Fold each of these.
Amino acid sequence: MNENEKRKYIKGRKLGEGTYANVYLGQLRTDPAVLVAIKKMKVQREQDGIAYDAVRELKFLQELHHPNIVELLSVFNSKDQNLNLVLEYLPLGDLESLIRDTDRVRYGAADIKAWMGMLTRAVWFCHDNFVLHRDIKPNNLLIAADGEVKLADFGLARSFADPGVNMTHMVITRWYRPPELLFGCRSYSGAVDVWSVGLVFAELIIRTPFLPGNSEVDQINRICQAIGTPTEDNWPGVSSLRSYAVPAEVYPVPDKKAWMDRFGGVGAEGVDLLCKTLVLDPNKRITAREMLEHRWWRTDPKPTRKEDLPRSKDDGAKKMGADLGRRPGAVEDENRGSKVARRLDFGAK
Amino acid sequence: MSRKAAMGGARQPVGGATTTTTTTSTISTEDMCPVCKTIRYLNKDMEFLINPECYHSMCSNCVNRLFNDGPNQCPYAGCNKTLRRKGFRSAFFGDLGVEREVDIRRRVAAVFNQGEDDFETTTDYNNYLQMVEDLTFDLVFGTDRKRQEAEATLQRWEAEHTAQIEQNRRQGREADEMARRRLRAEKDAARLRRIEAVREAEEEKRERALTREAELDSIAQAPEGQGSSRVQLKRRGLAAAAGVNSAAPVATAAATDVGKLSIRGLKEKKKAVVHEGPYDPFGGLDFTPSRYRLGPDLKHQRIEDLRATMRYNPGGFRFEDWTAQLMFEAFAGLGVFVEDEKEVGIGLEAGRVASIGAGIAAVGDRMELD
Ligand SMILES: Nc1ncnc2c1ncn2[C@@H]1O[C@H](COP(=O)(O)OP(=O)(O)OP(=O)(O)O)[C@@H](O)[C@H]1O
Ligand SMILES: [Zn+2]
Ligand SMILES: [Zn+2]
């Protein structure tokens, strides 16, 4: 059975590399026009939990079938006993490369609404099926040939816990990690994913990570400054969380106007939704379902049709290190001074 | 910009006031070397050279004679500049004052090389240009004191400027290094997160084993009725049936719904309809449970007890999520028919289910995650 499954595909060039897997392009042997992505888990060493990673991904992907969640097509073992997941091929890169390519990719409120709709539906679907994703970020949102955004990488997912069961707080990439996890909370809910969704929303608007903390402490500081210091007033019980610590200066929760100034590009309703996803107290944070019931989706502009959404200009080839930006020391010599009105140029070179 | 044009520019701000300088003698175009008094028409090939240290003009013979053996003092009376042979060149402009001004401007321009982009506003930029112009004027036509001051400013700026360049270069390297280090740290953190998630799973498994033991113990010890209700709760949902009205008959679902394999059971999903109507944020899906309806009086002692202890939830754990999950799982099996699943599978065929099974077998008992 395994052999049959394996022989169904021809493995092609490498598409990308993650911490735990190499991803290859694959073709159906019987119909080479059908492309797939084959995610080959790296050598499995028990103590590293690589096997778990694969199994988590396998376990959840085989249960979750939704247009906005990457589709698992098959599974097989290769000779070296590595697990291979056959996934639908998503050729148009990820949301991060679109956000970062500010020079070449232009998009607007209608596009953001379309992407956010797809992301929110994916998260809502997970939560309604009692699954926490726990690693939502722009580069885990891959884009299909027709423009559909798909939530991928379920390597950290888990099902909802029973009451009182401890979960790890060491999940979600730092910039997208909610305050309850930063405070070491071990009994949490889908609200952790909603916070990440809110930060992806903010990043889509300002086209740079909203809270790029460079340590956990810095992350908490940034949250306090941008969204307000979590206190017993705005979040009852917060000070009892295991590693609750905030900067001495208490920052107020910013008012609507402050949010509008920075994120007004998506309109007042959009900003209202954004604020609700970034509420400090997870009990008061909007749920994924409530997000979909929000007025923003029904106000103008209407979300862009997925076929018409802006696309990456990279033509599949991922731009390496694009996020490093231009080095501060690099000076643009060309055209320097060509616009100068009054300076006299004596050919000093 | 050609040098001719440059000259025009150079003269403009100063109004040709070349005679005010102390170090520049205006050369009368007399063809006599002021040093050896040779006259040009006696020596047609005679060439005049200047050295930008002092712009004192002399013939090439004098230059060779005086400076071929090394640095020497300028032969002009009262000029104490030390000159080198290689500093001499023929003057480009007939007017050595202009020659000097052009040289000064070139030097100033090399140091004050900011562009308009470097400034916040055009006004700032214009002010900067004015400052540079004033400084240049002082260097060219200023009194000794003004000139020295301007010279000092220029040199200080030059020093700072090279420091700036050097600093920029260093910063560039540091930024690279920091980016590299950040990337590495992020990688480590990602790895740690995954390991931590594994620990979580194991801990949970152990805890579950422990509770199971405890449950068994309590059954052994408790009076019959109580004990068994606990076991039922552990099997999830079944116990909660009190207060639930079993709703729609269930046989309809599985056969029509392609794309779901129920290992734990998946919610009812209606196929998304293609539409150009108003935007549906839910994408055409509806998850209202169709197999059961929750009565308003849903109560179970054990659940109520737990709810009481869980009231205080700063981390956001939602009790309703849990009860919803209990109910869902209790009814999940009802819509699944083994025969249908064999055909429909996850949208492929039975072979796929089997191969997924094989994959799981390969990773062995580490599979147990929940
Ligand atoms: N279905 C797919 N179609 C096309 N490319 C894919 C697909 N899945 C993954 N990739 C590419 O492979 C890369 C690595 O995949 P992925 O992020 O899933 O691996 P990982 O080990 O889980 O990663 P991480 O280090 O982020 O946890 C991705 O960045 C992406 O470029
Ligand atoms: Zn001479
Ligand atoms: Zn001299």
Amino acid sequence: MHFLDDFYAYVTSIDLWKFVRIFWFFVFFEFLRFFVLDFLTVSLWWLTRRFRKDRTRRARQELFEQQPLISIIVPGKNEGQHIFRLALSLKEQTYTNYELIIIDDGSDDQTPAICASLKRNGFINLYLRNDVRGGKASAANLGLRYARGKFVVHLDADCSYDRDALENIIIPFFYDIRVGAVGGNVTVRNYKHSLCATLQAVEYFDTISVGRIATSELGIYRVISGAFGAFRREALTRVGGWDIGPGLDGDITVKVRKLGYKIRFEPNAICKTSVPVTFRKLIRQRLRWDKSLIRFRLRKHRDVFYPNETFRWSNFISFVEITYNLVLNIKWYVYIADMVVNFASYIPFILMTNILLYTCSNVVKYLMFSLFRTKRNEPIGYFLPYLPVMVIYFGYYLRIIRSVAYIQELLFKASYKDPWNPQKTSRHAKALKI
Amino acid sequence: MDTKKENESKIEAKDGRISYGNLLFYYIENNSSFRIEELMGYDALILDARDHDFTRLIIKRIRTHYNPEFYLKPVFLLNVKPTKDPLINHLHDGIIYSFDQVPELANIVRQIFLLTTQLDYNLPNSFQAQTMKKVFNFMHTRETKTLRPHIDVNSIVGYTYPELSVSFDDREEAQTLDILEWAEKEGLIWPDFHERIYLCNNCSSGFLSYREVCPHCQSSNAKSEDLVHHFPCAYIGPISDFRNPVDNTLSCPKCSKTLRHIGVDYDKPSVINHCNNCDNNFQDFYVKAKCLSCEQDIEVQYLIPKTIYLFKLTKKGRSAAVNGLFTASQEVEDIFGTIRPEVMKVMLHYEVERMRKNSALKSSVAVFHLENIYELYNRIGAKSRKNLIIELMNLVRENIRPSDYIGLESAATFYVSMIDTDPAAAAATANNIERSMQTAIHKNFSAFEASIRHHIEPLQIGTPVDAQLQLLAKELFN
Ligand SMILES: [Zn+2]
Ligand SMILES: [Zn+2]
Ligand SMILES: [Zn+2]
């Protein structure tokens, strides 16, 4: 009780100048970028919904008139059981002119038998198998090599897709001939499994879906998820397909963008994925993701910062945005240091206030963005109680993982040692500085 | 030649007859016209075997004959050339190089005679039993106890059992497998695994051409290529993507680097096939078997698997030659318009009782035997066999009165009752039956000469019907 009284006294004593001085990190970085900017773009998105409705209708009509062949490529190892369910569920899709290409990257289980049977029964059009594992990029490239469709859709075997997902992810290509790739909306299927999964569900909705609507509208959308992404085949062929991962999803997006194509996000093309259910597993996943971010942004695609013939402002901004995250991370430590040095005695109060601020802005943002959602898989009420925890999750847990990843990658180039790729390919990637 | 023959006073050769001691050999020159009936009265046969086809023809004609007098005849080959034909190699009794060796054959001929006298000549009642009985008779006189399979390009399944297969047309070889299966079930022979074969599901041919075909269009017109994975850039594609048309070196189409060392900068994780017919790509061929006999293209899982066994005669099988072969007959059951002989005996018994009351009534019973009909049966296959029996019984039915009945003993032997018919009229009817059957068979089966015998006896009041029928059969076969 005594603490709460003191806290109340502390909060009421803060004037505007003091507020900005103490909570500068929130005000200048978090609030501006992640609240105001997102809010403005999403508002714009909402205001233009009538225009988009018209545009979607015309594009859908064009799609069904032209009936282009879509090549669905699904690379994977030991995914037989998932492929079985995926192939069967794809038969439910509203858009039916597709060919399903499964690339089996050296499975050593029942996958070949399952796929042979699926192929015999017409659920799979092409089953390609590498007896020796070559990594996810080469598997996807093999699928691309034998794809015949005008569009290539990259799926993960362990995800599931709404009935109209295929139709919806292709529609944006008909908005504009310059659209080269479209990212689908990845949502969390197992969000009720554990606290860890629930927090990720909020995160996916918040940064991945909403953030991507915003960045898509701004033209700086950066990573097309490997779980659900569509490309013009021509664009993929021109960039030579995927390069060695990890992080190949982001990489291919950048490469397609560099060719001058537009990249879009389609919130109505919904894919459900299972996320890691324990914080320990989540750490491993995020370390990989964050390392690859550094590797591809700052090392391989450094050239987007240079004003040469391929220079494009949207590319530049997209990179600035990512770099911003990196800088933000460093600034956060500066902020912590500032607090410890200058306001050491108020730290418990400052922490409390920060949590309150973030929670409030999260609740507002979450409620408002929820209104824009066209499809609701779960009443938003389910997630509201978790919003205060999100402050810890976002502000501390993910941030620390990210810092560790950046340090490991920048100083030790750790991603080249990732067992995710076969050793034979990683060696070459490192030598080529990609 | 002549001087030699004079020196060997015991051997006399004249007009194709060679005599040695009390044995008389029939000599068949190459490509001479030969009627099997000419063998009657000779003890053995010497065949000029310089021509393969002629040799095969003669051996087949002798060994397939229904009459033991002919099919058991010792056959010796002169001037034989090496051949892979099991029908020639395993159905003769010896090879000689000149007539000088005839004395060496005497003991062989005598031994076969001795064993022939031990045989039982009762006719088995089914097609299978009849066929196997012949085989057992032959094996007994040749003192062999195993039915050995031989690879044979003439046989449609690729294997023959010469002693049995000789009875069948080469294209009907699958029937021998069915008969052997039957004999095994009857406990006559004991199987020993020899080989596994696969047969066409349409015509039972074993001559299949296996090939890999496109799973989309079944064409075998496909091109196979290695897939190449270039590690540095993760490009993967068929090796033709990497081939430089100018100097034939291999370089990557994505990053232009030259491939250097397999396992270091690239590898070949798999192969890919391209169908030139339908333009599809695939990795797993279907394997299909094209039947070279009927041209049917069959997926391998639908081929008929058969096991080729080496068969040893069981105790029952070994005694079948001497003690006769008695098995249940199924093929003469349910033939419309006929009754089983047991039923016939009961009916005749009532007829005799009727005659006892009215001594003016005269009735007869006839027995018919189609001596060489099994040669025909072997040729035409199981289904046609049954139809042929039905047809023949219809012919019989046309010649007799509705009140008379036919007792079918086997596919070759049957009884006909002739109620209220005097012996003269009965004899005329029997002759009509015999003639019409011969004509029909001759007309329908490419001039096959059916050898038919019959015998008629008036029905006696004093003797039991059983004994009368036995007597009738005995008279027929004497
Ligand atoms: Zn390359
Ligand atoms: Zn084909
Ligand atoms: Zn056939």
